[in-house]
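Internal QA ticket QA-208
Title: Verify multi-chain structure generation after dependency bump
Assignee: T.L.

Test input:
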Amino acid sequence: MLDSVDLAIVRELQNDARISNKNLAAKVNLAPSTCLERVRILRQRGVLRGFHADADPGALGRPLLAFITIRIRPHTREIVDPFITYTLQLPETIALSHVAGPDDFLVQVAVRDATHLKQVLLECFTSRREVTQLQTHLVFSHIYKWATDPM
Amino acid sequence: MLDSVDLAIVRELQNDARISNKNLAAKVNLAPSTCLERVRILRQRGVLRGFHADADPGALGRPLLAFITIRIRPHTREIVDPFITYTLQLPETIALSHVAGPDDFLVQVAVRDATHLKQVLLECFTSRREVTQLQTHLVFSHIYKWATDPM
DNA sequence: AGTGAAAATAAGAACCC
DNA sequence: GGGTTCTTATTTTCACT
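Actual output:
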């Protein structure tokens, strides 16, 4: 499906999405026009889903990160779907994972401080009837590997 | 610190890091040269930390995502630091969070299939002496909100 | 800080191998 | 599928406000 040149293109764009097509082409040993076409196809096929700036949450007034594991009951579509919609609409929510395991959801939030976190937990989550259990993991440090390693 | 124009620039780049400077300038009502300078300063100040392509893990041969919560003992620097280094070096690791809460670490992994996941769990984590407890959450769906909502 | 115009550079299209 | 060239567009610098 993806050849080594495609993988190289993806890797470069994972590391720097704002690299110019000319530079990208040079890095992967292609002519600019060929490289442009490859990128276009990768986007069209959904291999490259988007390009996003990574902004410091602290600079944006949300220095505190936390993971919240949540169990809800009953775990039916009628309860699950509205819960997902509700959680995603919260400005504090950064990411939401629907998971199988000890918990049902893993919500990542970015907040101003501990008071703000408490408020989100109590007012947004524990107050909801379907939420039966909730655990909070305060994030000390978070490292994201933007580029996928080869297997 | 950041005025509303800076916030608008950050928001646009979070949504599309490959937007041209010309278009970005038009969206935030600045001249291209002014916009370019603002972006330069935002990068220099560390507000914008980088720009990354979001690639489909499935297309890269890792369709299965999982969160692994890990407790280690003892929780001392001599044990913690090597554990972090070790985990980050695993090709399957996508993200690592050092957290306070019921668990010590939250590791996000991308794997080929259930067999690969089992292998990672058994060979990479449970086999390590410092790992005292481990729980796996298989990810059904994962939604990431790239742009930070205003508070 | 912000702008507009000029020079340098890159993108994108047409065409060929 | 890949490359070269050419036209168009964008980026980036700089003198000025």
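Spot checks passed. The two ends of chain A are 15 Å apart (CA to CA).
Status: verified.
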